[in-house]
Amino acid sequence: MEKGQAKSHRKVGMRRTNSEEDRLVSFSKRRSAIYKKASELSTLCCVEVGIVIFSPNGKPFSFGHPCIETITTKLLSENHTPYDNNQNLFEAYRRVKLSELHQNFIEACKQMKAAKVQEKQIKKKSMVHSKGWWEEPVIELDMDGLRRRADLIQNLQKNVHLQIHKLQTMASFPSLPSDTEAVGHGHERGGPC
Predict the structure, then answer these.
(1) CA–CA dist 168, 71 (Å, integer)
(2) Which of 65, 76, 108, 184 is most buried per CB count within 10 Å?
(3) pTM more than 0.70
(4) Are 151 and 134 in contact, with CB atoms under 8 Å apart?
(5) pLDDT digits over 44-60, tens only?
(6) Cα separation of 180 and 193, whole Å?
(7) 140-184 confidence digits (pLDDT tens)
C-alpha cells in the first residue's frame, strides 16, 4: 500500500468473495457505483440508460434514465433483433416478476380462504348462540360487559314494572263502553229507525 493512501481506496483484486455477507456488501456498494456511472453517462452524453442487476440472492434491481419502464418499452417495441443475452435477461426479469405476482396471488387466496372459514365459524356460532342476551353466561364478560348487562337488566326490570302497573291500572277500572254502545247513550227512541 502506498504511503498516505487511505485503506478504503486501495485496489481490491478481482476474485470471488467467499463470505456471503461480504458478497452482499460488495454487491450493494458496486451496484451503487454502477448506478452512479450510468447516471453520469446519461447526463454527460444525453442518452437513455437502463440497467437490470440480479443480486446474489436472485432479487432484481434496476436503474433507468428517464426510467427503466421507458427504456424496456422502447427496447421491446422497436424491431431490433436483440442479442441472446438481452433476451435472456428480460426473460429472467419477466419470470421473477411473474413469480412475485404468483406468490402475491397465492397469499391473497390463502387470506380469502381463511376469511371464508372465519365467516362460516361466525355464522355457525351465531346459529348456535341464537339465545337472548339474558341467557348468555356472565362468566365470559369483562367489567364493561357486566356493566352493560346490568344496565340492560335494570331497563328490562323498569319496563316490566311499567307493564305490570299498566295492566293493574286497566284491571282496576271497569271496561269502557265500545263505540257502538256509546252512540245511543242517553237518548231513547221508540219505534223503527
Answers:
(1) 89
(2) 65
(3) no
(4) no
(5) 888 889 998 888 888 88
(6) 16
(7) 788 888 898 899 899 999 999 999 999 988 888 766 554 444 444
Pairing of strands 60-65, 49-54: antiparallel
All cell numbers assigned to 88: 435472456
Q: Which three cell numbers stand for residue 93?
A: 426479469
Rounded Cα–Cα distance for residues 91 and 97 (Å) = 10
What contacts 30, CB < 8 A, 6 or more positions away?
A: none
CB 66 within 8 A of CB 38: no
Burial (CB count <10 Å: 0-12, 13-18, 19+), residue 103 = exposed
Q: What single-letter amino acid sits at 44? A: L
Taking the CA of residue 23 as centre, how many other CA atoms within 13 Å lie in the half-sphere pointing to its CB?
11
| CA 84 to each of CA 24, 80, 89, 156: distance values in angstroms, whole numbers, following the listed order | 28, 12, 9, 82
Q: Map grid coordinates 442479442 to a residue.
A: 83
